[in-house]
Design brief:
The chain has about 130 residues and is of the alpha+beta class. It has 3 helices and 9 strands. It folds into 2 domains: about 70 residues, 2,3-Dihydroxybiphenyl 1,2-Dioxygenase, domain 1; about 60 residues, 2,3-Dihydroxybiphenyl 1,2-Dioxygenase, domain 1, CATH 3.10.180. The strands form 2 sheets. Strands 5, 6, 7, 8 and 9 form a 5-stranded mixed β-sheet that branches. It is globular, with a radius of gyration of 15 Å.
């Protein structure tokens, strides 16, 4: 078994695709028409980092309850952890593209880390290699 997808509620499909693909460098794996459980049109949009097996299903908010969760799916905690082989290059690239980092890079036992916000405001860790790698 493996974890294939995690869902991330977003305000707009196209804005989220732009952020994940252009800014973070993810691959757009799928963008297909679909239907909600009650038959309304939606899209099935999956992005994932190059070479990864687990993807993110970008789920456009549908209704007030889902809209309220956009950017707050993890109650202000870091909810995603993106590991980069070349931390410095990825960090500088993201900064140059306007990604909001809420902490400066620091060293932890699990690698270099800096916290950033995605397009919706969710917090992510950008992680570098572990010290023993």
């Amino acid at each position: 078994m493996h974890l294939e997808l995690v869902a991330l509620v977003v305000a707009d499909y196209d804005d989220a695709i732009e952020f994940f693909v252009r800014t973070l460098g993810f691959d757009l794996v799928e963008d297909s028409p679909s239907l909600t459980n009650d038959g309304r049109p939606k899209r099935w949009v999956v992005v994932r980092p190059p070479g990864a097996t687990t993807g993110i299903l970008l789920a456009q908010a549908d209704g007030p309850t889902q809209t309220e969760t956009v950017g707050r799916q993890f109650a202000g905690r870091v909810g995603f952890f993106l590991r980069a082989e070349d931390f410095d290059t990825q960090y500088q690239r993201m900064v140059s593209l306007g990604v909001e980092f809420v902490t400066e890079p620091r060293v932890e036992p699990y690698g270099r880390v800096a916290v950033f916000r995605d397009i919706a405001g969710n917090r992510w860790d950008l992680l570098g290699p572990r010290p023993d790698e």
